Amino acid sequence: DAPGNTRTVAAGEVVNGAVIGNHDSQIVFGKTNNTVINTGLEFGADNDDNSGGQWVQTGGVANQTTINNSGLQGVLAGGSATDTTVNSGGGQSVHGQASDTTLDGGTQWVHSGGITSGTIINKDGAQLVKAGAQATGSVVNTGAQGGPDAENNDGQWVAGTATDTTINNDGR
């Protein structure tokens, strides 16, 4: 396929096991299970040159997604994602709801109006909770390697609201 193809998952439709790469996009109004995302962040975070990835729309649900290096999942207002794994170099951008995300070196951006619950932040993972966003029940297992004042960029960073956070050994 040529790069940049768009696949829409219609409301009421279920797509299992899709693999998204090569700047392709998956627009989700229905439900997806076990998607693997390898594209969408090639140019870094918040770069308008990015294209592709998975975009979960209002009423859409993405379950058990794996986001790899250069992969991006965008959860828009009214959309939801559950049981997502974000590996090193991947990102999840949340304007809607995301529950039980595991950050295995990846990054979760929680934007104003976005709500997360049960995010687990492992080594080299980062959760950035922006103003107007909420994060509940996060578990932080990283961020304090080298001491509490070390210049690390992983862990949980909060400008919004974080409740019921658990910070384990080496967490910040």
From TrEMBL:
Residue stretches of biased makeup (Polar residues): 162-172
A Pfam entry, by short name: AIDA
Annotated stretches, region: Disordered: 141-172
Gene3D superfamilies in alphabetical order: 2.160.20.20
NCBIfam families on file: O_hepto_targRPT (TIGR04415)
Protein's recorded name: Autotransporter domain-containing protein
Protein's organism: Kluyvera ascorbata
